[in-house]
Amino acid sequence: MCNAKMTIVNGNAVLGIELGSTRIKAVLVDEKNTPIASGSYEWENQLVNGIWTYGEADIWKGVRESYSQMARDVKEKYAVTITTLGAIGFSGMMHGYMAFDKEGELLVPFRTWRNTITAQASEELTSVLGYHIPQRWSIAHLYQAILNGEDHVGQITYQTTLAGYIHWKLTGEKVLGVGEASGMFPIDIETHDFNNTMISQFNTLIADRNLNWKLEDILPKVLVAGEGAGYLTNEGAKLLDASGNLQAGIPLCPPEGDAGTGMVATNSVSVRTGNVSAGTSVFAMVVLEKDLERVHEELDLVTTPTGNLVAMAHCNNCTSDLNAWVNVFEEFMVSMGMQVDKNRLYEVLYNKALEGDASCGGLLAYNYFSGEHITGFEEGRPLFVRTPESTFNLANFMRVHLFTALGALKVGLDILLKDEGVRLDTIYGHGGLFKTKGVGQKMVAAAINAPVSVMETAGEGGAWGIAILASYMMNKSENETLDDYLTNRVFAGEKGSRVEPEQKDVEGFDVFIQRYKEGLSIERAAIENLK
Questions:
Q1: Is 433 exposed, middle or buried (0-12, 13-18, 19+ CB in 10 A)?
Q2: From CA 449, how far away is CA 274, in angstroms rounded?
Q3: Over 90: is that where the pLDDT of 431 sits?
Q4: Which of 102, 258, 398, 507 has its CA 20 to 30 Å from the CA of residue 13?
Q5: What angle do CA 327, 348, 397 make, to 5 degrees?
Q6: Among 269, 301, 265, 299, which Cα is nearest to 287's?
Q7: How far apart, in whole angstroms, are the C-alpha atoms of residue 62 and residue 141?
Q8: Pairing of strands 187-188, 193-194
Q9: Spatial contact of 83 and 58, defined as CB atoms under 8 Å apart
Q10: Which of 285-294, 436-445, 499-508 has the weakest average pLDDT?
Q11: Does an H or E element contain 463, and which?
Q12: This prediction's pTM
């Protein structure tokens, strides 16, 4: 406590804030990258005029509230008021669309990664660039707006991501970390910058639109981990800290996406390592030794915060339907007059799934709250389906909902691991699916037929990951790589749990995924007939 207090008093504590899909979290760390205070703000995206979005006022309310809660935590624990910090880092949900005019005003409401409204743009750009451009990427949103003839396009002077937006308003710097930038537009792995050849191809593609800008004019500057990315301005300090105690002049690291911070938080930035983040959405990333043999529309190519190539399978849906079913069980218990411990309820239900048949007893479910590009859906309908012969019991019911939470992900990873033959030594799990010890790990191990580890620090998440990147910028020694910094300073002596795949579970998941693929026409019929 005394050491943490002195770290804060001396202005050496480092702050990371990540804007996730359901929570904005602030984490303060000491010189050893140990969390010493935190704060958070719960929020939800809204479907407004067919667009998944977060309001601009909500964004700033959440940022300020998470910072305020962290500052209160510091005050209560250490009797200290924060006036300055060693460094700050911001991260957020990757991709999406935020376009601004010359006055710095948002031209249209923030379009999040969750939207699947850019199919035409995705398909055309993938063909023109010879590089898979997913629907949620920023460039797909921009090109779709051009194809739609949207009035605001001609007024754009800057386009960035959620993390880049926050960073810009706090520092005045229009920059992005390379990992976050790789979800906007393809990166040249040699230069660690946007691919100039593809920028030229894009400019040629839109030349007949006679816009008053070229793509390179409106994109942020790309930086790699460890580089300085500006300083907190007086205006930025007031935006972040409503109390007015925080002073300007604090250095900021390059803003990163939740994919990059997840890699950092799980020590998976080296080749042949990977991580699975499973919460509202789910994605898996594997750091590659070389380029893939072919373009796969199911896989994205992004980078680590240091610019190494990463294959990413991203799915819009993961635990939302699973959580909805747990809520139904909670409602039943309350109706029966029982006291409900939500954590205990999750633990019981998740562990019940381990008693189920390897292939879920013939049950089938889809967790599609929204569209799922890997399987070709622009919207979704959560479904549970069985035949009269299915073995319908609680264990199989929970198991099928855990399996289907990973169903689309497995479709993508099978391409990477089986078709492309990518080698994977270690994969780390983090996110809500892994909170119940061992269960989420066993399910993921069955899906990918590889060992899955969860570190003791996994619960700290992306806010801790961006705090580490800010700390790396501030504290790294000369020529110290991020890999070395993580291994030797952050995760040295770190203990975790490792689960090996069991053959019967692997075979059971393969049987389930075949049923899952064959039943996709049921999901399609539900979308077409259930409005």
A1: buried
A2: 14
A3: no
A4: 258
A5: 65
A6: 269
A7: 25
A8: antiparallel
A9: no
A10: 285-294
A11: helix 461-475
A12: 0.83
d(CA 111, CA 117): 10
**Residue percentage of the chain with pLDDT more than 90:** 85
Q: Which residue has the tokens 């998740």?
A: 350
Closest CA to 255 of 300, 222, 213: 222
What is the residue extent of each domain of the chain?
Answer: 267-317+409-500, 320-405+504-529
* Residues near 278 by beta carbon (within 8 Å), at least 6 away in sequence: 318, 319, 405, 406, 429, 430, 431, 432, 433, 434, 440, 444
Tokens representing 102?
A: 């010359």
Task: Read off the amino acid at residue 229.
Answer: A
CA distance 168 to 175: 7
pLDDT at position 458, please?
Answer: 60
- With 80 as the cut, is the pLDDT of residue 460 above it? no
pLDDT of residue 494: 74
CA atoms within 13 A on the CB side of 192: 14
Question: How confident is the model over 224-238, as a mean pLDDT?
Answer: 98
Determine how β-strand 364-366 pairs with β-strand 383-385: antiparallel
Q: What does the pLDDT average to over 13-29?
A: 96
Q: Cα(140)–Cα(101) distance, rounded to whole angstroms?
A: 19
- Averaged pLDDT, 330-338: 97
Helix (H) or strand (E) holding 347: helix 342-353
Selection from 444, 417, 433, 437 nearest residue 502 by Cα: 444
Amino acid at the residue 129: L
- 């979704």: which residue's tokens? 380
Tokens of 237: 């300090």
State pLDDT tens for residues 248-304: 999 999 999 998 998 999 899 999 899 998 888 898 999 998 889 898 988 989 999
Query: Do the Cβ atoms of 229 and 252 come closer than 8 Å?
Result: yes
Rounded Cα–Cα distance for residues 44 and 261 (Å) = 21
CATH number of 267-317+409-500: 3.30.420.40
Q: How far apart are CA 291 and CA 411, in angstroms?
A: 20
Q: What is the 3-state secondary structure (H, E, C) of 381-432?
A: CCEEECCCCCCCCHHHHHHHHHHHHCHHHHHHHHHHHHHCCCCCCEEEEECH
Helix intervals (H) in 90-195: 119-129, 138-147, 162-171, 178-181
